[in-house]
Design goal:
Blueprint lengths: L2 H5 L3 H24 L1 H4 L12 E3 L5 E3 L6 H5 L7 H20 L3 E7 L2 H4 L1 H5 L19 H6 L7 E3 L2 H7 L15 H15 L2 H4 L6 E6 L14 E6 L5 E5 L2 H5 L6 E5 L5 E9 L1 H4 L3 H6 L2 E8 L5 H6 L4 E7 L10
Parallel strand pairs: 3-4, 3-11, 9-10, 9-11
Antiparallel strand pairs: 1-2, 5-6, 7-8, 8-10
Length: 332
């Protein structure tokens, strides 16, 4: 299998994606050498707050925190029967509501880094890694149960097989961050777009990138501040930011933030709403979505405001969640 086979890309789009992958690999390798003293923590060392753990080859992972993520994947924390029923009811309710309002809805859950790179969390040698006492497919984690109770007709994208297939070829996630990098974001973004519009429209897109600098969020748990690293990300000069709430400035809280992007030259002259978390907020997903749609209305929220969608003539709805948040049901 090649990248083109996995992503159903060819021609100019495949060339653009392969160029992205090459630059990501170069920058990742450069940053690992340049900031060796930051990345060279012994595997197993945890941050003082116990939220982040160092793995192998400079990888950092969310291990605990408010969602107790690694307890989820090992089945030490699981959804109760009541929790499973609540998820099933919520997903059915959302599907029925969207259908009644003539809104196309798709749910997507972003797999956590350990599930794509277990060899860098638990063992150095990628050809001979693992503890025979550990189930590395983590069959007891909450998403596995939720996938068994999805309502008929609901578009639900859990791209773990896609990302695992790409893992030998692409960076997908930053070493020092909990989030995906541009290759992982674009791969999932393309699958999302194909679930909403004609694949022929998606084939008309051009992928545009630029270099930038960031501080990675997981490294912030060890260093104050961590280094500024060069990355490649999505160019954002084709859309206008026509609204942005000032909630973060006023409260310091991301939850509830909202913004609207306008792309007057979009292939699809409709509006889409994205309800999600930090994977959508500022790590590229809304950029990819804005290539296709005239307006992207983003809400940093797990709850959907249906009145807002109807009042603003929203035709498409994406609900996105990091997998570690699936252990609890949104309170509606």
């Amino acid at each position: 299998m090649t990248i083109g086979d996995i992503l159903s890309l060819s021609g100019k789009q495949l060339s653009q994606f392969e160029s992205l992958v090459t630059i990501e690999r170069e920058l990742s390798s450069k940053n690992l050498v340049l900031f060796d003293k930051y990345y060279a923590l012994p595997p197993g060392e945890k941050s003082k707050n116990g939220v982040v753990i160092a793995g192998y080859c400079g990888y950092f992972f969310v291990t605990d925190g408010s969602n107790h993520w690694e307890n989820q994947i090992f089945g030490n924390i699981s959804l109760s029967e009541r929790g499973v029923n609540a998820w099933q009811h919520l997903l059915q309710q959302r599907l029925e509501k969207a259908n009644a309002l003539n809104i196309q809805i798709v749910h997507t859950v972003v797999p956590e880094k350990q599930l794509i790179f277990p060899m860098f969390r638990w063992k150095r040698n990628a050809r001979d890694w693992g503890d025979p006492n550990i189930d590395y497919d983590f069959k007891k984690r909450p998403i596995k149960t939720i996938l068994n109770v999805l309502p008929s007709g609901l578009k639900f994208i859990y791209p773990i097989d896609l990302l695992r297939a790409l893992q030998p070829y692409c960076e997908l996630y930053y070493r020092g961050d909990s989030h995906w990098c541009a290759s992982g974001c674009l791969a999932v973004g393309l699958e999302l777009l194909r679930s909403l519009v004609s694949p022929a429209l998606v084939e008309q897109l051009s992928f545009r990138f630029e270099r930038s600098t960031v501080r990675h969020d997981l490294m912030m748990h060890f260093y104050a501040p961590p280094p500024m690293e060069e990355i490649i990300t999505f160019v954002d000069n084709w859309f206008s930011l026509i609204y942005a709430s000032d909630q973060l400035r006023r409260t310091g809280v991301h939850n509830g933030m909202r913004y609207i992007l306008l792309n007057k030259n979009a292939l699809q002259q409709d509006k889409v709403a994205v309800y999600g978390d930090s994977y959508s907020l500022d790590t590229g997903l809304t950029n990819v979505i804005s290539w296709m749609f005239r307006e992207v209305h983003f809400f940093n929220s797990r709850n959907i405001n249906w009145n807002y969608l109807t009042a603003n003539n929203i035709k498409y709805l994406i609900w996105q969640s990091a997998e570690r948040f699936m252990g609890s049901v949104p309170v509606v």
